[in-house]
Design brief:
Layout: H1 4-7, H2 51-56, E1 117-123, H3 130-140, E2 146-151, H4 153-159, H5 163-171, E3 174-178, H6 188-194, H7 198-204, E4 210-213, E5 218-220, H8 228-234, E6 238-242, E7 250-258, H9 259-268, H10 279-284, H11 293-296, E8 300-301, E9 311-313, H12 323-326, H13 329-338, H14 342-348, H15 357-376
Parallel strand pairs: 1-2, 1-4, 2-3, 8-9
Antiparallel strand pairs: 4-7, 5-9, 6-7
């Protein structure tokens, strides 16, 4: 009788000493008949990328940003750059043609990024909405455009919680830059001073020539047939949501800016500290070739309604939301159906979107009352399904809205009616 020791199977596991990326499990069952079975198991490192740890538990360290930590022994506080005198040639009357300005799919992984075209957001607060807003802009800007978050390590830590944001950073589509101390943005005046600083445009944003400035209270719409490249081709030095028909220029909260044009202005003029005008108004008063209001309202809607704009911006970070746009139930439903992305920023402002049947019923009733009041020539106070109230001195807009109905005008911008309210 064979002894049990002869039939017992003994297994040996040998780890490959050659590479840490390859594990060889060697199993040798020994039987009475001396049969041997060798099983080699190879576990390729490709199935376990080292980025997995980054995606699942992403630190907010220098590995993911181009801004070093101050705790790093090699960290040296940067000094404000000096203007080098170089200025790209710019002829607003003879702009070069832009190849492929129509909107194209964003899925091509072979697209070459263009550092001269950048979408910029300045945000130092750790806002939870940041990843959602950044994601929407990354998807909706043209493939070659770079999205750049200029902010703080606190803001970066919120962004780095998102696995998709980490992938965009590795691809170069999203760039995080810590803003230096000599470009303060801690209050309205400081921000206006930074955004009228010559070196901010000529050196810090270099080599950008076209910059889309946006905020967490702005959004561009995926359903829009317009493209940022189309607006670049138009060659305006500034495009922003018009404040009213009579004002020059538009709000900087969602604005396309031509950097060489701004550099030319800042070479010849300087904004005084504590000036009565914020940066967008100050620059618009001095720039040439600004998009007129009738054109600019198709770019961004703030207080001047247009049915299918490229994007939307809320007045004063939602603190001064315009009742002609958002207190009219019919218009609000049109906006939600055309650009549902606006619900992201409205939710951030704690304004509940009117999307349920009961809300729609209340909106229709309020619109009918408003139309009746307009017909009778009486200005009334109306409240929609979300409790938003229109001013007593102004009759609400008609219930039926068309793309050509853009005759309303908003009051001129005041100190509280600025995109810089985002930093207060």
């Amino acid at each position: 009788m064979a002894q049990s020791a002869h039939t017992a199977e003994r297994r040996f596991c040998i780890l490959c000493p050659v590479s840490a990326r390859c594990e060889i499990a060697l199993h040798i069952p020994l039987a009475k008949t001396f049969r041997t079975l060798i099983v080699l198991g190879f576990y390729s490192h490709r199935h376990w990328p080292e980025d997995t740890a980054v995606i699942l538990n992403i630190p907010s360290g220098p590995k993911h940003t181009n801004a070093p930590f101050e705790s790093d022994p090699s960290y040296k506080k940067p000094e404000e750059p000096l203007y080098n005198g170089e200025l790209p040639e710019y002829d607003p009357e003879n702009m070069p043609s832009i190849v492929g300005t129509s909107k194209k799919p964003m899925s091509s992984s072979l697209t070459t990024l263009d550092p001269t075209r950048v979408a910029v957001i300045i945000e130092t607060r750790p806002q939870p909405i940041l990843p959602a807003v950044l994601s929407q802009f990354i998807m909706n800007v043209p493939p070659a455009w770079i999205v750049r978050l200029i902010g703080s390590q606190e803001a970066f830590s919120i962004v780095m919680l998102s696995a998709s944001m980490a992938r965009h950073i590795r691809s170069g589509k999203l760039v995080l830059t810590e803003i230096p101390d000599f470009y303060p943005v801690n209050n309205n005046e400081a921000l206006s001073a930074t955004l009228t600083n010559l070196t901010f445009y000529s050196e810090f944003l270099k080599p950008a020539e076209w910059a889309l400035f946006f905020q967490t209270d702005s959004m561009i719409c995926s359903a829009s047939e317009q493209s940022l490249d189309d607006w670049v081709e138009k060659g305006y030095s500034w495009v922003g949501a018009p404040w009213n028909w009579g004002s020059r220029g538009g709000n900087g909260g969602l604005s396309l800016r031509h950097i060489p044009s701004i550099v030319q202005v800042l070479q010849n003029d300087a904004r005084k500290a504590n000036a009565s005008e914020w940066e967008d108004r100050w620059l618009c008063d001095r720039l040439s070739n600004i998009a007129p209001a009738k054109v600019a309202q198709t770019f961004s809607v703030e207080s001047m309604y247009y049915e299918r704009p490229l994007g939307y911006h809320l007045r004063g970070s939602g603190k001064l939301i315009d009742p002609k746009i958002w207190a009219n139930g019919t218009r609000k439903r049109q906006i939600f159906r055309y650009c549902p992305e606006t619900k992201i920023i409205l939710g951030n402002m704690k304004l509940e979107p009117a999307s349920e049947k009961e809300d729609e019923k209340n909106d229709l009733s309020a619109d009918a009352s408003a139309l009746d009041a307009v017909t009778k020539g009486v200005a009334t106070k109306t409240v929609d399904g979300n409790g938003m109230q229109a001013p007593e001195t102004e009759a609400p807009a008609p219930a039926i809205v068309t793309a050509t109905e853009t005759t309303e005008s908003a009051p001129g911008p005041t100190e509280t009616d600025r995109w810089t309210d985002s930093w207060t």
